[in-house]
Amino acid sequence: MTGAVDKDLLARLKRAEGQLRGIQRMIADSRKCEEVVAQMLAVRAALDRMVEMHLSANIRDCVRGLPPEQAAERMTSLLSMVTRGMSTRG
Length: 90
What we know:
mainly alpha, 3 helices, elongated
């Protein structure tokens, strides 16, 4: 990963961690369902963006030095992971 992307991702992860703790408090405090769900969706969107950022910054490193067939398999595997993650949203 690049240094700037690393720092940004780590900051975003810490922010998401704080949001998750906030959601735990909201549930413990019996906050309205709509408020809790809105925060859950915000965290999920933030994590989705982090996946995009991580892949964009690292996709070349994931396949660097691999023979073409293995590189293609790795790319297929990554695409499958992302697609499965997206399909659970339906």
